[in-house]
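Chain A, query sequence.
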Amino acid sequence: MVLHRARTIVRAVGLLVLAGVLAAACSSTVSHSKTAKGSAPSSSNRPTTSVATPSSPTSSSSPTSSSPSSSAPATVTSCSASALSGSLAGTEGGAGVLETTIALRNTGTVTCTLDGYPGLLLLGPGGAQLTTDAHDGGSLAFESVAPSSVSLAPGGAAFFNIGYSEVPSGGESTCPAATGLQVTPPGATSHLVVTVHIAPCGGGQLHESAVFGPGSAGAQTAVPSGASS
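Chain A, predicted structure.
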């Protein structure tokens, strides 16, 4: 009887243990299944989608617009005495009044201008200064040429006239003979000397025209008439 109970107890314990093992196994299976269904796939297992971002076009520098360079016109300066040579173009006259025309030539390498009346001084032998009374303009046509700008290219010439009397006056017995004429170009401070042979009376009185160019109205009054370059 006792032995029969012991066996019954052992069987019961064994069944309980077996039931516990089965319950644990079942619980583990359900838990694993839920986890597998509810968990999100690992990021390492997800396919990677690569989206290509269009690159911005390389901005090329816009072409530089260069405006044509405008060169400023060259400045033409007044003729200096060092860029000129002077000579006697001619002398003529009557009734005691003489006209002499002086030519001024550009011996430089650039164009220059003359505009106005030259400064004048009579010179005697050896360059001695003589009494000179110079006046701009006069009553005679060849003396009254109006000022205008004359452009002298290298080698070009301009002219001016001088009027004077050869009749002694104011107690003069003779009129001093000049062998040179010192000429200061209009606007210049230096001078050149032109060889002449004139004897202005009246204390060396001279009436001069403004400088004029060849072919101008003033050139028709020159000696010789229509003085050319």
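The radius of gyration is 60 Å. Residues 25-54 have pLDDT under 50 and may be disordered.
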